[in-house]
Amino acid sequence: MNQLSLTINQQAVTAAPGTSILEAASAAGIAIPTLCFHRSLEETGSCWMCIVEIKGKNRFVPACDTPVSEGMVIETDNLEIGAMRRQNLERIIEEHGGDCMGPCELSCPAGCNIPDFIAAIARHDEREAIQIIKQTIPLPGILGRICPAPCEDECRRHGIDKPVSICALKRYAADREREQPERFIPEIAPKTGKKVAIIGSGPAGLAAAWFLLCKGHAVTIFESAARAGGMMRYGIPRFRLPEAVLESDIAPLLSMGLEFRFNTTLGKELTLEALQADFDAVFLAVGAQQASRMNIPGEDEAGVSSGIAFLRKAEAGERPSPGRRVVVTGGGNTAIDAARTALRLGASTVTILYRRSRNEMPANDQEIGEALAEGITLIEHAAPTAIKRLNGALEITAITMQPGAPDASGRRMPVPVEGSEFTIMTDTIISAIGQQIDHSVTRDAGSGCGKYGEVLVNSDTLQSATPWLFAGGDCVTGSDTAIRALEQGKKAARSINLFLNDESLCAPASSFNSSYGARDEAPKALYSKAVPTERVPMTELSPSERTANFNEVATGYSEEMAHSEALRCLQCRCNAINNCRLRELASRYLPVHAAQKHEHPDFYLAENDEISMEREKCVDCGICVRTLEELKESVNIAVMAESCPTGALSLPVTIRNHCS
After folding, report:
1. pLDDT tens across 555-602, in order?
2. Nearest to residue 260, comparing CAs of 216, 214, 316, 213?
3. pTM of the shown model
4. Interatomic CA distance for residues 37 and 43, integer angstroms
5. What is the fold of 103-184+515-566?
6. pLDDT, tens digit, for every residue of 362-399?
7. Element spanning 187, H or E
8. SS3 of 219, please?
């Protein structure tokens, strides 16, 4: 058969008569985007995503059902074609609704694939669960205990009853792995010969080490303390985060080749100049470990301590004696931890003063509840104004606060109520009103510091003005949560790897994400088959058992409990997220944004044992209809589901929520 000669993107191509432009381009290694195309079906060109231009004729045609002809000159991508594809996509997406990713994983700073690891637990596959978790969170035992769980705040289960206990399930997977003789070690690339120094062994430093080791680089962490963990070890008491859990999460890093050098402080035993001579890149990951001052008279009196210092002494085994009466100022986790620690060290009464309401306290709500259950008193809307020593004890004066005008963030600023002062007699005062960056550590970072001592870096890459120096975690963001510090370490590792490979540094590409909207804006029909099911409570020591020692308060899930809680997950993540052609095209041609849809008049969900169908995800490409019409009795349900380009048709999730 005579071959036809044509040109595609200035490349000479031959094809048999009757061949479509799409087939000819594909055979020549030239990719043309498609949406409604399926190689086993007759094509209609209805979506017009495969549009190309026939040069010299000013004709734009769908490549899937336009045959080639002799001498044809084709261009598959240019400004006009790109604009047409964007218009087509915008029209298609207007009719498309659904969650690409679950709201839980979108709100996780580390981007953890929460639906899939929970599904693995639901089918009793804890090994698979821990592998999924460690793709983004290499410290699951720690984060399963101390993360404030923003993912649970966004869980769509709110539309039925209570959110899934995501952190408890993460902890369960980590605890089960800790019991195994062999720990999960990720695949490690061949050694590159490159060396990276990390300053600080908190969540940012440890996370960066994990991902850099995976890339084959040698990593050394320099830590000022005698043991690894940073504030996770020295700022969080053992009744929340046992030492065994810290060691368990660090152990795989040692197996991967991580080297530690302890009792080494930047600016004392260590300089950036010395590091530059021995390492190819440096990541500064020191935490915000300097206590904020109250700036009131008497705060330097004996018996007044910062929360950080108090907790560090307790962890170091000094067991400070706080006396019978203790007052703690502040509303964060450090304040709650210090108050609960004081009880365990012998205090009979512990009072927390906080200048706002309980609902506005930045501490984890669960931790606040546990503190109150243990007998700690919370005085809301109270701020300290002075401290003085009186008859061998301390007298702290506080004033009642009331909400004032909103500040720049929208929060109402507390203002004092004139004449409302009151006093409390106490033996020890613990100040835990905040933490700051130690300027003496960051001022020599090579790129200068901001107003609060933060290292100045590119927010997308965490690279400083000194190309080989990167920084992340609290020394960049200010005092923040461990999960956000971990995310910074992961981001830094990506940038450092690019730098070591002499590649251009840039922010990672974001994918288009369709969404039903905020957690309470999903279509009501989405919940129609879900049965309200009580959240499985975590087993805990009784309040009377807790304060006698530093044993962990929450004892975790059993296998049966974890399985039951995992079954509550609605599995919001789209089954087709990894092969959705619509998402791929939207990520390529449209500005990345969440397609928020607040009305769902066409929502329809149907499923049986063989196939699931979500009408709002359908873009009327016609593949399923043509499959039924043309293949008839030979239709394979699995093949038909896989051929759907948007996940509107899918195989049912084998582990679904409690549905009838």
Report:
1. 999 999 999 999 999 988 888 888 899 999 999 888 766 455 556 666
2. 213
3. 0.91
4. 7
5. Fumarate Reductase Iron-sulfur Protein; Chain B, domain 2 (1.10.1060)
6. 998 889 999 999 999 999 999 999 999 998 899 999 99
7. none
8. strand
Looking at per-residue pLDDT, the higher value among 47 and 652 belongs to 47
Task: Please state, in angstroms and rounded to a whole number, the distance separating the CA atoms of residues 502 and 496.
Answer: 10
Cβ neighbours for 468, distance < 8 A, ≥ 6 positions apart: 276, 280, 281, 282, 499
- Smallest CA-to-CA distance from 155 within 143, 145, 142, 169 is with 169
What single-letter amino acid sits at 14?
T
Q: Do residues 281 and 468 lie in contact, with contact meaning Cβ atoms separated by under 8 Å?
A: yes
The helix (run of H) or strand (run of E) holding residue 252 is helix 243-255
H-run or E-run covering 52 = strand 51-54
Structure tokens at 628: 């039924």
CATH topology agreement for domains 4-94 and 195-288+437-500: no
Give percent of the chain above pLDDT 70: 94
Q: Three-state DSSP class for 547? A: coil
What would the mean pLDDT of 65-91 be, rounded to a whole number? 93
Burial of 75 (0-12, 13-18, 19+ CB in 10 A): middle
Q: What is the pLDDT of residues 225-253, one digit of tens each?
A: 999 999 999 999 999 999 999 999 999 99
Residue the block writes with tokens 């927390």: 352
Q: Which residues pair with 606 in a beta bridge?
A: 613
Residue 300: pLDDT over 80? yes
What span, in angstroms and rounded, lies between the C-alpha atoms of 106 and 122?
21
Q: Could you tell me which CATH number the domain at 195-288+437-500 has?
A: 3.50.50.60
Given a contact cutoff of 8 angstroms between Cβ atoms, the answer to whether 61 and 54 are in contact is yes
Q: In this structure, what token pair is assigned to residue 615?
A: 């009408």
Maximal C-alpha separation, the chain: 109
Q: Give the CATH architecture of domain 4-94.
A: Roll (3.10)
Count Cβ atoms within 10 A of the Cβ of residue 566 and give its class: 0-12 exposed, 13-18 middle, 19 or more buried: buried
Distance, in Å, from the CA atom of 167 to the CA atom of 523, rounded to the nearest integer, reads 26
DSSP run (H or E) holding 38? none
Query: What 3-state class would DSSP assign to 494?
Result: helix
CATH superfamily to which 293-435 belongs: FAD/NAD(P)-binding domain (3.50.50.60)
Q: How far is CA 519 from the centre of its chain?
A: 17
pLDDT for res 449: 75
Rounded to an integer, what distance in angstroms lies between the CA atom of residue 154 and that of residue 108?
Answer: 10
SS (H, E, C) 350-389: EEEECCCCHHHCCCCHHHHHHHHHCCCEEECCEEEEEEEE
Element (H, E) at 25: helix 21-27
First to last CA, the chain: 59
In whole angstroms, what is the distance from residue 53 CA to residue 81 CA?
8
Q: How many Å apart are CA 270 and CA 25, to the nearest integer?
A: 59
Which three-class secondary structure state does DSSP give residue 150? helix
The residue extents of the domains of the chain are: 4-94, 103-184+515-566, 195-288+437-500, 293-435, 581-650
Report the distance separating Cα 596 and Cα 104, nearest Å: 16
How many H-runs (helices) and E-runs (strands) does the chain carry?
23, 28
